[in-house]
Hints:
By secondary structure, this protein is mainly β. Helix content is 12%, strand content 55%. It is built from 1 helix and 10 strands, in the order αββββββββββ. Strand 1 and strand 2 (33-40) form a beta hairpin. The relative contact order is 0.09.
Amino acid sequence: MIRILFVLLLNNFVFLTDLTFSIVSETHKNHQPKIIQIYSKTSSPELMRIEYYYENGLLRRIENYKKNKLDDLVIEYNDKGEVQFKGYYKMGEFSGDTLKVFNDYGRIISKHAYVNGTLNGISYHYSSDG
Length: 130
């Protein structure tokens, strides 16, 4: 009985490693991927994630989706790989309590307070000299 259970778990593990497929929907002039869409492998595939890339191949933006709406973490990077923007979404609406925006050097330039997906509260904007 234990051996059969082990085999079943092993088969499920192999199945779980292949639940998505990717489509390069757009490329740069140098043939590097510009946009990669990742879908679930189901009878009716559902968009799960979109990755955007710079022409040099570095990741520019990651968007996670659920039922074709932004859902979960969204991160945007500059062309040096530093975070520009980070925020959480729930079914298309910003849901985090603070939206943070960063400059090209990874320094925070603004923070905005949100309540239930709506801008509500104090926003901070930082000048380039601090």
